[in-house]
Amino acid sequence: MTLFSATRIALHALGRNKLRSALTALGIIIGVGSLIALLSVGHGARAEVEKQVASLGENVIQVSAGSISKSAVKLGLGSSGSLTVEDADAVREEIPDVVAVSPEVKIKTQVVSGNRNWSTEIYGNSTDYFTIRQWRTSLGEIFTEQDVRGATKVAVIGEEAAEQLFGEDEDPIGEIIRIRNVPFKVVGVLQAKGASASGSDQDDGIVVPYTTAIKQLIGKQSGLRRIYVQASSLETLPIVEKKLVNLLRQRHRIEAGSDDDFKVRSQLEIAESATATARAMTILLALIASVSLVVGGIGIMNIMLVSVTERTREIGIRMALGAYPRDIRQQFLVEALTLTCLGGVLGIAAGFGGANVAAAIQHWPSVISIDSILIAFLFSGAVGVFFGFYPARKAAQLDPIEALRYE
After folding, report:
1. Which of 84, 123, 170, 173 has the highest CB neighbour number within 10 Å of its CB?
2. What is the DSSP-derived secondary structure letter of residue 397?
3. Do 230 and 277 belong together in one domain?
4. What does 91-158 look like in DSSP terms, one character per residue?
5. From CA 260, how far away is CA 254, in angstroms rounded?
6. Could you tell me which residues are beta bridge partners of residue 230?
7. In this structure, what is the dihedral angle of CA atoms 262, 267, 269, 270, given to the nearest 10 degrees?
8. Quick one: 89 and 164 in the same domain?
9. Distance of CA 35 to the CA centre of its chain
10. pLDDT band at 358 (very low <50, low <70, confident <90, very high)
11. Residue that finishes a domain, picked among 199, 234, 260
């Protein structure tokens, strides 16, 4: 029996019990649809995390100050003040393949503009910060190297901070804001970047020259919170990271075997840790959806066993006319596979629709990949073969004489 003949017979057999075939295929449709929909949500979450990590810039290394303890309570990274401006200068001058360095200080305080006020983060950085983060302005310009050297009282504000301090219609360029009663002139508004990989709002902040922040807002006794370093390429990133650690250990006089008083994280490490959760969620969702496919497969086995019982006499007649056991086995296997493949095609369409509806209602990104479609379709076919084999084998092992006598 050819595959074409087996498929034609299978379609004819399924067509004789349309309602039963449709209900049996429904389990596969739900399984494949849920698998594609859940995988698309998982891939969408991963893509969103990768987008947030990419907003940090390219080939970026973050050096954070270490943690100190007060009254047996650890205050977290950045609290030790172990990093200095001189450390940042040394990194820029002594490590090859470093193209940009920005020391950073940070405070959270109330900012006043006219009769408006807003509590936000104030970041002190160099002009390299905007190059490293690949952050452009939507209005105005960033401050200059001359502003950094002269500790000029200028500020570049995020989109959310601009809206809270000036409203949606007012142009903030050239306006004065007061940070801890120190007047700053707004020279630029940054383009929106959304949430970071850690979940914080990158648009709710104000960037000023780090020299100005140290002299006017924080005080010279305070160390840096972080140093941003950009390597020349992805290939040189691990080399720069290793040399960076060695340089800072030498400058901080840390003996061999002692712990660092700083924390170094490359963009590769940040991306890996940020996407690990999304990857685990995708796998979990796929396993949950796979259970639906298995349940649908059990339903197919059940119906195929019923079909074998109902068509026992038909099987006997086929064998009496010269059909081999392998022909009978092939016929029922193709029937089960046809049922699962039809269900798989309809399930793919249902998965597309479900993913788009979920994305529209929950405002959650969804990414439907070719891989997830192929996996779902092949899995549904494998379910048909696996759960259809036993009924097909049972049909092939029937005794022709007993089958002809069956009523």
Report:
1. 123
2. T
3. no
4. HHHHSTTEEEEEEEEEEEEEEEETTEEEEEEEEEE-THHHHHTT--EEEE----HHHHHTT--EEEE-
5. 7
6. 60, 100
7. 90
8. yes
9. 18
10. confident
11. 260
DSSP 3-state assignment of 358?
helix
CA–CA distance, 32 with 348 (Å, rounded to integer): 6
Number of domains in the chain: 2
Q: Are residues 233 and 152 in the same domain?
A: yes
Taking the model in full, what pTM does it have?
0.64
Full residue range of the structural domain in which residue 7 is found: 3-52+273-405
pLDDT for 78 beyond 60: no
CA-to-CA distance for 230 and 19, rounded, in angstroms? 64
Considering the domain boundaries, does residue 213 fall inside one? yes
Q: Are 122 and 109 in contact (CB under 8 A)?
A: yes
Both 31 and 103 in a single domain?
Answer: no
More confident residue, 101 or 222: 101
Collapsed DSSP state (helix, strand, coil) of residue 363: coil
Select the more confidently predicted residue: 136 or 41: 136
Q: Which residue has the tokens 């901070």?
A: 161
Structure tokens at 63: 């050096």
Q: Which of 260, 214, 201, 225 is nearest to 75 (CA)?
A: 225
Q: Is residue 204 part of a domain?
A: yes
Examine the fold and report which residue of 260, 285, 317 is the final residue of a domain before the chain moves on: 260
SS (H, E, C) 163-176: HHHHCCCCCCCCCE
Residues 26 and 220: their CA atoms lie apart, in Å, by: 70
| Greatest mean pLDDT among 32-36, 82-86, 276-280, 322-326 | 82-86
Distance of alpha carbon 1 from the chain centroid: 49
Domain check: are 241 and 99 in the same one? yes
Q: Is residue 380 part of a domain?
A: yes
Q: Do residues 206 and 305 share a domain?
A: no
Same-domain check for residues 214 and 307: no
Q: Give the pLDDT confidence of 238-281 residue by residue, as tens digits.
A: 899 999 999 999 998 888 888 888 888 887 777 676 667 777 77
pLDDT digits (tens, 9 = 90+) for 143-160: 999 999 999 999 999 999
Which residue reads 């000036």 in tokens? Answer: 166
Q: Please determine, for residue 76, whether its predicted confidence score (pLDDT) is greater than 50.
A: no
Q: What is the mean pLDDT of residues 199-210?
A: 87
